[in-house]
Design a protein that fits this description.
Layout: E1 6-13, E2 20-27, H1 33-40, E3 43-46, E4 49-52, E5 54-63, E6 68-72, E7 78-81, H2 84-101, H3 103-106, E8 109-119
Parallel strand pairs: 5-8
Antiparallel strand pairs: 1-2, 3-4, 5-6, 6-7
């Protein structure tokens, strides 16, 4: 069994309000430099604030009887398709159009985030 590692993000405002010092501490027996490097890529500095950016877009998928339907969890995007492949293509396109229409909503995500989906597989009769 491997030990869980907890990574904490600390932001310290310096005397100059436009400068922020970001330090990452890995609370484990050894510092995991690879994870710290990966985490640094997902930090966005805005003035005195440090913001951790999302690496994935979450969506729910279900079958309504006629179509496969997809709905984003974190913002208002919904689409459907006759097949799962069609739905996935439609969902990716709808997300891209949403971000083009509302660029500020994409600022919470890293460039080229992953699409993570959860699918309702229906009832289980036991």
């Amino acid at each position: 069994m491997t030990a869980k590692k907890e990574i904490k993000l600390h932001a310290i405002a310096l005397p100059d309000p436009g400068v922020v010092l970001t330090s990452l501490l890995c609370q484990s027996k050894c510092h995991d430099r690879m994870n710290i490097r990966k985490l640094k890529k997902h930090i966005m500095k805005i003035g005195n604030e440090v913001k951790l950016m999302n690496k994935m877009i979450k969506a729910d998928i279900y079958f309504d009887g006629d179509f496969y339907c997809g709905r984003c969890v974190d913002f208002d995007v919904f689409t459907q398709g006759k097949t799962l492949d069609e739905l996935v293509n439609n969902l990716k396109e709808a997300i891209q159009l949403h971000f083009e229409d509302d660029p500020e909503s994409s600022s919470n995500y890293i460039p080229n985030p992953s699409l993570f989906t959860m699918m309702d597989l229906g009832e289980i009769h036991v």
